[in-house]
Task: structure prediction
Amino acid sequence: MNNILQCSFKQFDKIINKEIPAKVVYEDEKVLAFRDIAPQAPTHIVIIPKVKDGLTGLSKAEERHCEILGHLLYSAKRIAEQEGLEDGFRIVINDGPKGCQSVYHLHIHLLGGRQMNWPPG
Result:
């Protein structure tokens, strides 16, 4: 999954602010979800919090982030239902250089529409 998104966290901010286009599939007051520009599965959606609040990666999470972290996961479940992924899906959060994180604005990858392999490698 290295370098799936070839954009910076500033570009995520521009997507949130509707300054650059994205294929938005879900949005509420806290999160925005859009189709990945380099999909790794038939369904590949990126889910981001609208307010970063220092949350550049999961390893930077603090207790104050619990609400948004839960909301991100619940939103992923709702989006999976919306996308017809009743047979299953995968959630991926890359963290840090060795976790192949390429955008330092916490984001969740929702992957589905095909059989996932294990180990993910």
